[in-house]
Design goal:
Elements (H helix, E strand, L loop, with lengths): L15 H12 L6 H5 L30 H7 L3 E5 L6 H10 L1 H11 L4 E7 L11 H15 L4 H7 L12 H13 L4 E7 L8 H12 L4 E7 L3 H7 L3 E4 L5 H12 L7 H4 L5 H12 L3 H16 L2
Parallel strand pairs: 1-4, 1-5, 2-3, 3-4
Helix pairs in contact: 1-6, 3-5, 6-8, 7-8, 11-13, 11-14
Organism: Pseudocercospora fijiensis (strain CIRAD86)
Keywords: Repeat
Protein name: Nephrocystin 3-like N-terminal domain-containing protein
């Protein structure tokens, strides 16, 4: 019994290892991991600030207050919201957090010795139906749970009345039942990272309701990211959060300098209105206005222009 639910049952329909393989095969879909795999890695030495603990963050008049993600990973519960305008680098940040060893190091303090699992999904509006829907989210999360937590597989099978040899019909309802059975029957802890809620296609309230149903479980917490759209802001504005475009100026500067550094002695900088290389870089960063994607798109054009004199 866990959280008032009883799922500790024996399921004899198939041997556990075979049952697990059948369920995994039925859940898998093409492009399940494609969105995360397509996100380019962060520029070296950027995004390290995300692991600053709350007590070490230096408040300055030009650096708006934000809630430390590291402190939330260590001890916080509920929901953390990574908010930012289009092109500010939210998906790059979320992919970085998911892959960085420091994330699990921080989460291990929250886990208090219990087995810890990081589950993730990256919504992608231009992608397939399953890359931008609740069904795709639930299938991906359940796939990850079954991959990592062997002992819940029989409980999942019982919850959905699994029938070996028959093609599974993974409706949203059955997926929700399966995930609830898995999470509520496990003593492990789970941290969800859900990127691009604004990329979801469908009734947004159904997605935010799902997030809060997960959040209500005592062994679950979630980090979500999105643009500051009205309905998402209404749902997450009171959560611990950061506003990415207010915090990424130094990272944009590092990116621009990395790409332009080899031209530092070019006479072209003495001819421009800023007279210096550093002045030129500062102007590019200023014009980006927190939109990392703008810098990524503009800098190659600048490189070609500078190279040609």
């Amino acid at each position: 019994m866990h959280n008032g639910h009883v799922f500790n049952v024996s399921y004899s329909g198939a041997a556990p290892s075979s049952l697990r393989e059948q369920i995994l095969d039925s859940l898998w879909f093409d492009m399940m991991e494609a969105r995360q795999d397509s996100i380019k890695g962060a520029t070296p030495e950027t995004l390290d600030w995300i692991y600053e603990p709350q007590e070490s963050i230096a408040w300055r008049h030009d650096k708006p207050e934000w809630d430390s993600l590291a402190t939330w990973l260590d001890a916080g519960d509920s929901i953390y919201w990574v908010c930012g305008k289009a092109g500010s680098g939210k998906s790059t940040l979320m992919a970085h957090i998911v892959d960085d060893d420091r994330t699990k190091e921080c989460l291990s303090k929250w886990a208090h010795g219990k087995p810890l699992h990081v589950l993730k999904f990256f919504f992608w509006r231009p992608g397939t139906e399953l890359q931008k829907s609740i069904n795709g989210l639930l299938r991906t999360i359940l796939y990850q749970i079954c991959t990592e937590v062997d002992q819940v597989v029989q409980n999942i099978a019982k919850a959905v009345r699994w029938q070996p040899g028959r093609q599974a019909s993974w409706t949203d309802k059955r997926l929700n039942l399966a995930i609830e059975a898995a999470l509520t029957s496990s003593d492990d802890v789970f941290c969800f990272f859900l990127d691009g809620l604004d990329e979801f296609v469908g009734d947004l309230s159904s997605l935010t309701d799902l997030v809060y149903r997960f959040e209500a479980l005592e062994n679950v917490k979630l980090c979500v990211s999105s643009r500051p759209e009205a309905e998402l802001t209404a749902n997450f504005s009171f959560c611990r959060q950061l506003r990415l475009e207010q915090l990424n100026r130094a990272d944009i500067e590092k990116f621009v300098e990395t790409k332009l550094r080899r031209f530092i002695d070019k006479p072209v900088f003495r001819k421009c209105p800023y007279r210096t290389y550093s002045g030129f870089v500062a102007d590019v960063v200023y014009r980006a206005d927190g939109v990392f994607l703008w810098a990524v798109l503009v800098v190659p054009t600048l490189v070609r222009s500078i190279s040609s004199g």
